[in-house]
């Protein structure tokens, strides 16, 4: 899922997303609650209509801000209270309010409100957060079932989020508690938040193996291309990450290591990253990647995009972002082909 946190993918418009075959985007409940707000989103008929996007959309619940805005929030059993990162105003977000806002946004997939903590918190705190997340998942489901008529999009799906830090037994308890609620899909949360790579892969594989095989499995915040390939081999289906768009804004571009085939993805060096501002690209008339079909690679040279970054032209970020987004879309298309043909 390409990230459209505040209702837009940075530097791209909807036609760019459609041209690069982006199947689904992700937006964020907290940021849209702060601005433009619940009532403004309702007046505009939801985010699909507001931004002109006809494809599927998933919204995070705002729970990640429990982690990322750690110095600006307070967690109680009832809700999380934030100080807005915009003006310092108090913002309260409960499980019910999170679902209400996601109904106003009209996303096709809603995430439960959960408690995300750093990976190095004591085990007892990780367990408390995991258990509270299960209770909040039930509150999210109960509110949705009682208020479905409020949704801008009919038949919205609700996913639960498995927590438990790096502790396998807590992860197992979380899966059990969430699957008992019979939600529409399940996500692995609380990873890619600073734990070491070994713990990440160990916990992801253990958790994925416990999750229902007949429901969508979603790894939140993953990740690097090689991580996504590894997660798919574990049986995980969906991913999101800011890496492609954030790297693009700094001139870091993903380049295929050869002709793009499912077999290539089993090689350790199936891609590389280049920093296009480097002097070595100043006079290169070659495309950034001859194996890419994005606007940048089919129409321009390395020297041109190098020049745009050097001149700080806004077009540099647009072309670079489209390139990295297309790389990730091609990655997922190739993974899917590999799965279907038993290559991955």
Describe this structure in words.
The protein is of the alpha/beta class. The protein folds into two domains: 2-241, TIM Barrel, CATH 3.20.20; 246-340, no CATH class. The chain has 14 helices and 13 strands. The chain has helices spanning 14-19, 29-34, 38-43, 47-51, 64-68, 95-105, 123-146, 168-179, 197-210, 225-233, 243-249, 295-299, 302-310, 314-340, and strands at residues 2-3, 25-28, 57-60, 73-75, 80-83, 90-93, 109-111, 157-162, 185-188, 216-219, 238-239, 252-256, 271-275. An eight-stranded parallel sheet has the order 1-2-3-7-8-9-10-11. Strands 4-5-6 form a three-stranded antiparallel sheet. Strand 10, helix 10 and strand 11 (238-239) form a beta-alpha-beta unit. The radius of gyration is 20 Å and the shape is globular.
Side by side, the strands of the main sheet go 1-2-3-7-8-9-10-11
Query: Which band does the percent of strand residues land in?
Result: 5-15%
Mean pLDDT: 95
Structural class, from secondary structure content? alpha/beta
Number of domains: 2
Broad CATH class of the largest domain? Alpha Beta
Query: Termini separation (Å)?
Result: 20 Å
So, CATH architecture of the largest domain?
Answer: Alpha-Beta Barrel
CATH superfamily of the largest domain: Queuine tRNA-ribosyltransferase-like
């Amino acid at each position: 899922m390409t990230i459209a946190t505040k209702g837009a993918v940075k530097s791209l418009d909807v036609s760019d997303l459609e041209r690069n075959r982006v199947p689904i985007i992700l937006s964020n409940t907290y940021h849209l609650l702060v601005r433009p707000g619940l009532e403004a989103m309702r007046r505009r008929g939801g985010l699909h209509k507001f931004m002109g996007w006809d494809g599927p959309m998933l919204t995070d619940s705002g729970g990640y801000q429990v982690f990322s805005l750690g110095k600006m929030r307070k967690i109680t059993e009832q809700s999380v209270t934030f100080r807005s990162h915009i003006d310092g105003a108090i913002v309260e977000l409960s499980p019910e309010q999170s679902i209400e806002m996601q109904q106003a946004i009209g996303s096709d997939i809603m995430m439960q409100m959960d408690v995300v903590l750093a990976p190095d918190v004591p085990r007892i705190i990780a367990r408390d957060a995991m258990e509270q997340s299960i209770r909040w998942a039930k509150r999210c489901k109960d509110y949705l079932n009682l208020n479905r008529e409020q949704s801008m999009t009919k038949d919205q799906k609700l996913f639960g989020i498995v927590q438990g830090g790096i502790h396998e037994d807590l992860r197992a308890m979380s899966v059990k508690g969430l699957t008992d609620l019979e939600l529409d899909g399940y996500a692995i949360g609380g990873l890619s938040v600073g734990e070491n790579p070994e713990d990440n892969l160990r916990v992801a594989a253990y958790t994925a193996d416990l999750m229902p095989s007949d429901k969508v499995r979603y790894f939140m915040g993953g990740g690097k291309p090689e991580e996504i390939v590894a997660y798919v081999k574990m049986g995980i289906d969906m991913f999101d990450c800011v890496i492609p768009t954030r790297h693009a804004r700094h001139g870091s571009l993903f380049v295929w290591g050869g002709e793009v085939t499912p077999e290539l993805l089993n090689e350790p060096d199936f891609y590389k990253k280049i920093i296009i501002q480097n002097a070595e690209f100043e006079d290169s008339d070659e495309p950034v990647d001859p194996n890419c079909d994005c606007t940048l690679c089919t129409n321009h040279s390395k020297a041109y995009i190098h020049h745009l970054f050097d001149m700080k032209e806004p077009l540099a970020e647009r072309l670079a972002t489209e390139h990295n987004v297309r790389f990730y879309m091609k990655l997922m298309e190739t993974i899917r082909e590999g799965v279907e043909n038993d290559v991955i």
